[in-house]
Design brief:
Length: 111
């Protein structure tokens, strides 16, 4: 069975994917984290985001359609979601401290 469709990218992520190379050209040798930071600054300063918001809305519509098709063809939300989640590792027993050991010794002596 096919995997559940992935969630669509936001308007910002669509824009950042297209602008990333330009940001790198602007500042050669820039770190990945700095690219993201600069991208955030440029996105906040951008006045007209309608192009990217329209692309994001279309991607969301496509995603919604794909999810409906997936579920109609036997895909199950909860079964796939739960299968991918990892269970928490079992807790290790607490280590004995020297103080605990000395308490045990005291009990033996008093008997």
């Amino acid at each position: 069975m096919a995997d559940k469709p992935k969630r669509p990218l936001s308007a910002y992520m669509l824009w950042l994917n297209s602008a990333r190379e330009g940001i790198k050209r602007e500042s050669p040798g820039i770190k990945v984290t700095e690219v993201a930071k600069r991208g955030g600054e440029l996105w906040r300063a951008m006045k007209d985001k309608s192009e990217w918001e329209a692309k994001a809305a279309k991607a969301k519509d496509d995603y919604d359609r794909a999810v409906k098709d997936f579920e109609a063809n036997g895909g199950n939300n909860s079964a796939n979601g739960n299968a991918k989640k990892r269970s928490k590792p079992a807790k290790k027993p607490a280590k004995k401290t020297k103080k605990d050991d000395s308490d045990d010794d005291d009990d033996d002596e008093s008997e």
